[in-house]
Amino acid sequence: MTEMAYYDCLSRIQNEMKNKSFSDMAKIWEKYFLDLRNNDYFLPLGLALCHRDFWIDWNGNSFDLTEEGWANLVVSDCQFEKISGIACPWNPLPGDIERDHWWPKSLGGPFSGHNLLGLCRIHNLAKGNGLRGFDWNVKPRWIDSRLDEIHQKKLFGLNKNYV
Ligand SMILES: [Zn+2]
What we know:
Blueprint: H1 3-17, H2 22-38, H3 43-49, H4 80-84, E1 98-101, E2 116-119, H5 121-127, H6 143-155, H7 159-162
Antiparallel strand pairs: 1-2
The structure holds zinc ion.
């Protein structure tokens, strides 16, 4: 499981949705979602389904997702080692730790303690918005509820129309 598999999944879903109506796009999303649920769990597909491009319902209205927030969470050390294997040599003060999304916000990552990565300023700049150090072997604890919420908001009211 790699970053490449993630981009493959994302582009495959997006290509399939090209020039489709919003309700067809929602059904395509659901097909992959059910696939994910019913077959061996494939994390790159789950992450692709979280992408912000898909936060739009079958009527074409965009929506937001519930965010747990991390206002009260304190990270006391720079966690650069977690993503790079390199220990941080700066020992920043807890107040100087910057809080970043481990799975990027731009790709649908939540403000959740399970997606929080504390980094000193230098290492936060070094990480940028990329996927460096993301652990593809561990299913993030936030992903199931996030996908359930997208599913619910995306398809709400649609099933009546075609079942
Ligand atoms: Zn650091």
